[in-house]
Specification:
By secondary structure, the chain is mostly helical. It contains 5 helices and no strands. The protein has 2 domains: about 1-30; about 35-105, Cytochrome c-like domain (Cytochrome Bc1 Complex, Chain D, domain 2, Orthogonal Bundle). α4 packs across α5.
Length: about 120
């Protein structure tokens, strides 16, 4: 049976481990989302709607035609992306303007596990 002092030390130790792991995961997650969407009048709405489920790298790496962006936006709305119907066309215009098929790909940093 643990004595009172041993119990408190154990709780403090577990709390420290938890906080350290939480900090590590949070820092890793924030740094993984380093890609930014280009500025534009609808950027913040696109960011809010899209980043609910994935980070900007998913968008930034895409190179789609307006027709393909339309299909993609409609698919995401169908899957639950919160997009005001009056903003739908602005989303498609923003994405097709900033990520067209003829734009060179964004450089994606490689991440390797350190040993």
């Amino acid at each position: 049976m643990l004595r009172r002092r041993e119990f408190h030390v154990l709780v403090a130790f577990c709390a420290a481990i938890f906080c350290g792991l939480f900090g590590f995961v949070w820092t890793t997650r924030v740094s993984a989302q380093s890609a930014d969407l280009p500025p534009g009048p609808i950027q913040s709405k696109v960011q809010t709607a899209c980043m609910e489920c994935h980070d900007a790298r998913i968008i930034v790496q895409q190179r789609l035609s307006k027709k393909a962006w339309t299909k993609e936006v409609d698919k995401m709305i169908k899957w639950g992306a919160v997009v005001d119907p009056k903003d739908r066309d602005a989303f498609i215009d923003y994405l097709s303007l900033n990520f067209p098929p003829d734009k060179p790909p964004e450089p994606m940093p490689r991440v390797s596990a350190k040993k």
